[in-house]
Amino acid sequence: MNLSRNDERVLALAGLIQACHLVTGLARTGLVGQDSLAGSLETIFVTNPEITLDVYQGGNGVRTGLRLMTELLGNLSISDHGDTLRYALAVVSLEKRMRQTPEILREIGAGISGIHEHRSINELSVTDEEIVDRLSHLYEDTAASIKPRIKVQGQQTHLKNPINTKRIRALLLAALRSAVLWRQLDGRLPQLILSRGALLRSADLVADIIS
What we know:
CATH class: Mainly Alpha
Distance between the termini: 14 Å
Largest sheet: none
Number of helices: 11
Radius of gyration: 16 Å
């Protein structure tokens, strides 16, 4: 399956948007779709993909993100997804600052390898509470130490729930994974405005391919 560079950027951007959308949902309602959660968290462990589609399970792991991309680019429904976009921009900014702290990047890489090994040995799913807990702690010990921290807003009842908090942190780590990939594919923020039409066509194309 041959995708253009722009198609691959759309996949990475959809991965970023999806993870941030799930953060928004957890903070507001305490709920998250298990398939979307698994699709986002799995990206963390695909560190040496042959093609971009491999990161997103052939595209199936980012269906929610592609739908949101179509809404955002096609309908310009920015006000409907304000928190999601704010988190996405914050993650892109955090990824940029992380590049200036190679020791944290190395710690994240080592941490992911260790969690992946533990998961494989114990045959645990990516949404297992133990794996989510380990990913949450990895985010808290590394990326979250870079200031300013990403502030998640929502209902305090949900934000004080330890299960939700851990899922949110794990999803922010997944969002960082897609932000790194987006940059590696030459993704730049001005493209979202200057190349909106091309990005929308790519989102439709990729959605058709995986449907």
